[in-house]
Design brief:
alpha+beta, globular, about 30% helix, four-stranded antiparallel sheet, about 30% strand, about 210 residues
């Protein structure tokens, strides 16, 4: 074997070593990404507001298998808020909307521990208004028209359906909370009954 052939053989050996050294690293990176996406899934989603505007929000959830969403972050931009802001809560987001120049957000707790964080909300759902930050307000303070229908996905879309468009949401929504109602309908009476079951007797209730 001459010098040129020897160099070529060494180079081939080096490439093989580098390849097999890289494969485990790539596998670890891939598995880490899959774990992170399962634990902290995020996606962009189009949301139609009641005034007809369509905005893009970014949802990120702290999601635990066999439990659900423990906390969430919803980032979006509106001139009524002075630009991009993030609504962080221990809730499953359901509504982002605007009325009379005010920005509102509504979410639902997942499980008793999240329910108790908000002092057993009387209507189960928890509402916020933007006021130099998202401040909690009584649920019934939200204009009635904004309390009727959800416009934000409360379930996790599969990777193949991200980002989520208005058309995607028109074709398929999340499973309904109440089996006999459309999944987007917010039935205050039903949610209050659900809250009563969670709260039990003598519990402190928040609005």
């Amino acid at each position: 074997m001459n010098t040129a052939e020897l160099k070529q053989a060494r180079w081939v050996t080096v490439k093989k070593v580098l390849f097999w050294a890289t494969v485990p690293v790539l596998v670890v990176i891939f598995l880490t990404w899959r774990w992170y996406d399962a634990r902290y899934p995020s996606w962009e989603e189009e949301v139609r507001l009641s005034d007809g505007r369509v905005i893009t929000i970014k949802q990120k959830h702290d999601y635990i298998k066999n439990y659900g969403t423990r906390q969430s972050w919803v980032t979006f931009s509106l001139p009524e808020m002075g630009g991009k802001q993030t609504w962080r809560s221990y809730l499953i987001p359901m509504v982002i909307d605007v009325a009379d120049g005010k920005v509102y957000a509504i979410g639902a707790p997942r499980g008793p521990s999240n329910y108790n964080i908000y002092d057993s909300p009387r209507y189960f759902l928890v509402a916020f208004e933007w006021n130099n930050g998202f401040q909690r307000i009584p649920f019934l303070s939200v204009p009635p028209a904004l309390r009727e229908t959800a416009n934000v996905l409360r379930c996790l879309p599969p990777l193949s359906h991200r980002p989520v468009t208005i058309a995607d949401k028109a074709k398929q929504w999340c499973d309904p909370v109440f089996s006999d109602l459309d999944a987007r309908v917010i039935d205050e009476r039903r949610f209050k009954t659900l809250s009563d079951k969670y709260a039990g007797n003598g519990s402190r209730r928040s609005e």
